[in-house]
Amino acid sequence: MAADDLHTRYMDAANTWRAHRAGCTTCQHGAPCKAGAPLTERFARLQDAYLNRRP
């Protein structure tokens, strides 16, 4: 997997999570809602993959 592709997917996941959180009072208070939990997990998984990638 190319780093550019991974970075794009990581940023897309971050934007999706932020957009959801902006309108979800449950997620704004620290505990993800049922819909927000998978978004949080995907963002975290892609962030970890991107930050731990090897050149």
Overall morphology: elongated
* Estimated share of beta-strand residues: under 5%
Low-confidence stretches: none
Distance between the termini: 11 Å
Helix coverage percent: over 70%
- Secondary structure class reads mainly alpha
Q: Using only CA atoms, what is the Rg?
A: 12 Å
Question: Major sheet, described briefly?
Answer: none
N-to-C SSE string, H for helix and E for strand: HHH
The tally of beta strands, per DSSP, is 0
Per DSSP, the total helix count is 3
Mean pLDDT: 91
Overview in brief:
With 55 residues, the chain is mainly α.
Task: Describe this structure as you would to a colleague.
With 55 residues, the protein is mainly alpha-helical. Helices cover 75% and strands 0% of the residues. The chain is built from 3 helices and no strands. It has helices at residues 3-23, 25-28, 36-51. α1 packs antiparallel against α3 (36-51). The radius of gyration is 12 Å and the shape is elongated.
Primary descriptors:
55 residues, mainly alpha
SSE blueprint:
Elements: H1 3-23, H2 25-28, H3 36-51
Helix pairs in contact: 1-3
